[in-house]
Amino acid sequence: MLNRRHLLKAAVAGGAAALFPWEGLSGTGVAAAGGELAQSTPFAHAMPVPRTLAPASTTATADLYDLRMREADVEIVKGLTSRVRTYGGAFPGPTIKASSGREVVVRQYNDLTVDTAVHLHGAHVLSEHDGLPMDVIAPGSSRTYHYPNAQRAASLWYHDHAHHLEAENVYMGLHGLYLISDPEERKLPLPRGAYDVPLVIRDARIEADGTLRYTRPSDCPHMLVNGKERPYAKVAARKYRLRLYNACANRYLRLRFADGTPFTQIASDGGLLEQPLERDELLMLGGERIEVVVDFSRWGEGRSVVLENAGALPTERPEVLRFDITRAGADPSQVPARLTTLPPVPQGTVEREFELRTFPAMTINGLTYDPDRVDVETTVGTSEIWTIRNVEAPLAAPPDFHVYHSFHTHLVYFRVLERNGRPAGARDQGLKDTVCLGPGETVKIAMTWGPYAGQYLYHCHQLGHSSGGQMGRIDVRAA
Ligand SMILES: [Cu+2]
After folding, report:
1. Rounded to the nearest whole angstrom, what is the distance from the C-alpha of residue 383 to the centroid of ligand 1?
2. What is the mean pLDDT of the chain?
3. How far is the CA of 479 from the centre of ligand 1 (A)?
4. Residue 80: CB partners within 8 Å, gap ≥ 6?
5. Which pLDDT band holds residue 396 (cuts at 50, 70, 90)?
6. Buried b (16+ CB within 10 A) or exposed e, 105-135
7. Measured between alpha carbons, how far is 432 from 416 in angstroms, rounded to an integer?
8. 144 neighbors 105 (Cβ within 8 angstroms)
9. CA 460 to ligand 1 center in whole angstroms
10. Residue 439: pLDDT band by 50, 70, 90 thresholds?
11. CA–centroid distance, residue 195 to ligand 1 (Å)
12. Spacing of C-alpha 429 from chain mean position
């Protein structure tokens, strides 16, 4: 019998394709990395900020938006044209800005040649607006999604979720930001406006002819921020709020400043933390969000500082983004010692266990996703404790083989109670909807199901894994 090390060797050599989710488990299969890699020079592009989408119309209680999914040609590596899949022609998609308590309605038209489904990650929505894998928008048709925004301020994102296709669709460009604000957050003296900047970070493989190729993560050495390969950003010598997203289909990031300067974390997936946290390095799995405040005055005008990925591939340079401090800046902003009060930690009365495996298939508790099978049944208002295990063998794996999982629940935020038997540490603070599971790790999380009844999902947010079936169905019954 082949042991794990043999399997890994075979995979590195290009064999054992069926064992790897990004090499054959998606509906269409994944092309091998064929073409020659594009050569690129870092810091050749100014970093753009995704544009804010204007509503097509407004009512007394709602903002209505139209978005068209279509292919577009964009420049990711300087001088090359890449064909991508977009929301509204933008790569990444345009940002939707919502206010807590005010409804957003988005009519999505599919002008692509593949099925799509739009999931708003981090949102509390009715099941029929959740973008379930089988609720697809066929090419040539449209669907209208209703988002009540009855939730606190947070950095969400919308992205594709069509069954077997989500990894490739998200990789090809179907993702955009959705930011909810609320009065409590607006009252805080945090950096705002032009000093509140999202960084959508993701890997890619751009070939010499410009082709953006969906392939296994170890063949994707390009790193994009807001759609451009390793850009630079001109900033003022003052504080900025940076909203970091790991939008990689299949990779984790270990972000740090090259000179070791710490970040001040203020928010995670579900919005503000109770108090700011100093963090030297930010480990982010696919789907996770971390918000930080960085004070560029500590370096000063005329200086530069590089944001690095300590989790870069051996074939990849670590630099992700260079900040150039080019001007002075008045700075009335502050990071208060107390940011918010979180709801109490749910006291679970139901306990469940979940095991995530990669071999011999992408499974949760031994099963791949079946939309007709109910894996978990609960009721609105029930508080639960879930123990989730990454049962990958704790062998030292080659650096290009990422046996991390990224566990995501739809409909609810959860709190991380424990990691590997110890109380949750800095990286697990706040309201979360996606949690990192390193090889062999176990986390315990607590959530209260609701407020809506209906069919929802939990899954791995390494999207090659969810596309391969590492996903379960939870039916929430009315109380
Ligand atoms: Cu996974």
Report:
1. 25
2. 92
3. 32
4. 38, 206, 208, 209, 210
5. low
6. bbebbbebebbbbbbbbbbbbebebbbbbeb
7. 7
8. yes
9. 4
10. confident
11. 35
12. 17
Rounded to the nearest angstrom, the distance between the alpha carbon of 45 and the centre of ligand 1 is 33
Q: How far apart are CA 422 and CA 144, in angstroms?
A: 44
Interacting residues of 219 by C-beta distance below 8 A, sequence separation 6+? 33, 205
The rounded Å distance from CA 390 to ligand 1 centre is 8
Picking from 261, 269, 266, 243, the residue whose alpha carbon sits closest to that of residue 436 is: 269
How far is CA 331 from its chain centroid?
A: 30
Distance (angstroms) between ligand 1 centre and the Cα of 249 equals: 11
pLDDT above 70: residue 20: no
DSSP 250: S
The stretches of 381-440 forming alpha helices (DSSP H) are none
Residue 4, pLDDT > 70, answer no
* 244-274 confidence digits (pLDDT tens): 999 999 999 999 999 999 999 999 999 999 9
pTM: 0.93
CA distances to 97, 342, 412, 458 from 383, in Å: 31, 16, 11, 16
> Looking at the predicted structure, is the pLDDT value of residue 2 above 50?
no
- Tokens 């289909």: give the residue: 249
Judged by DSSP in three states, 10 sits in helix
What is the structure's pLDDT at 401?
A: 44
CA of 74 to the centre of ligand 1 (A): 30
- Concatenated DSSP letters for 319-371? EEEEEEEEEE--------S----PPPPP--SEEEEEEEE-SSSSEETTB---T
Give me ligand 1 centre to Cα 153, in Å: 28
Q: Which domains does the chain have, with CATH numbers?
A: 57-183 (2.60.40.420), 193-328 (2.60.40.420), 350-477 (2.60.40.420)
Ligand 1 centroid to Cα of residue 228, in Å, is 27
Reply yes or no on whether the pLDDT at 448 is more than 90: yes
CA of 364 to the centre of ligand 1 (A): 9
